[in-house]
């Protein structure tokens, strides 16, 4: 399979650093669940916000969340924690971008290095004023970490497409067998 970035045929792209973003937020009592720790949905909103900022910057215009997957919560976030959401564009297709997000928390009462509390991968589609997908510039990886993230994103992309295709085919075959209605 040809790769426009590595074979040098890609249109002028944008380096990863041009859109890399960090969003920081202090957690308050408004953000808690019944256990008193921070609600996962609050962290997901920050993840979507940070990824959206990267997608908008990379594509130079509006972009919408098409999917969010592999959202993992590793350690609870607590009230008072200073949360940093680091996001960068890992991969670009024709009109879509995968944004990788890493969530770190600094405990309000500990002078220790930030704790990795979660991460996620989101796909954004760049859209025009009518909400139709529009082309994005290729992302140009700048170091080995960026290149590894790009290769891993390509694997996730392949799996997303295969999973969607397999489920669509299963649904179509169940309808054809009369097991489900269209
Ligand atoms: C995302 C959206 C623009 C895709 O539109 P579409 O008509 O399906 O267009 P396409 O099939 O050409 O998809 C556009 C790109 O998005 C990608 N994409 C679409 N759905 C996807 C999904 N579920 N997961 C991953 N990628 C997806 C496609 O692979 C394509 O990428 P490529 O051009 O780089 O190959 C459209 O589904 C949409 O507007 N969804 C709502 C988005 C939204 O409102 N988000 C906020 C939620 S409140």
TrEMBL record:
Positions with biased composition (Basic and acidic residues): 145-155
One term under GO cellular component: cytosol
Domain HotDog ACOT-type: residue ranges: 17-130
Alphabetical list of Pfam families matching this protein: 4HBT
Hydrolase found in the keyword field: yes
UniProt cross-references to SUPFAM superfamilies, sorted A to Z: Thioesterase/thiol ester dehydrase-isomerase (SSF54637)
Single GO BP term: acyl-CoA metabolic process
Alphabetical UniProt keywords: Hydrolase
GO molecular function: long-chain fatty acyl-CoA hydrolase activity
Protein name: Acyl-CoA hydrolase
Lineage start: Bacteria, Bacillati, Actinomycetota, Actinomycetes, Kitasatosporales
């Amino acid at each position: 399979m040809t790769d426009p970035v590595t074979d040098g045929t890609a249109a002028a792209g944008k380096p990863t650093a041009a859109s890399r973003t960090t969003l920081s937020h202090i957690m308050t009592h408004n953000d808690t669940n019944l256990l008193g720790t921070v609600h996962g949905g609050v962290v997901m909103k920050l993840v979507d916000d940070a990824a959206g900022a990267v997608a908008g910057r990379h594509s130079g215009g509006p972009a919408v969340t098409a999917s969010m997957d592999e959202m993992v919560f590793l350690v609870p976030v607590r009230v008072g924690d200073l949360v940093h959401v680091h996001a960068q564009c890992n991969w670009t297709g024709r009109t879509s971008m995968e944004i990788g997000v890493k969530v770190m928390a600094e405990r309000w009462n500990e002078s220790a290095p930030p704790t990795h509390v979660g991460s996620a991968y989101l796909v954004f589609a760049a859209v025009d004023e009518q909400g139709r997908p529009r082309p994005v510039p290729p992302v140009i990886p700048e170091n080995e970490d960026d290149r590894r993230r790009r290769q891993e994103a390509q694997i996730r992309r392949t799996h997303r497409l295969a999973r969607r295709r397999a489920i669509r085919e299963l649904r179509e075959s169940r309808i054809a067998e009369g097991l489900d209605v269209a």
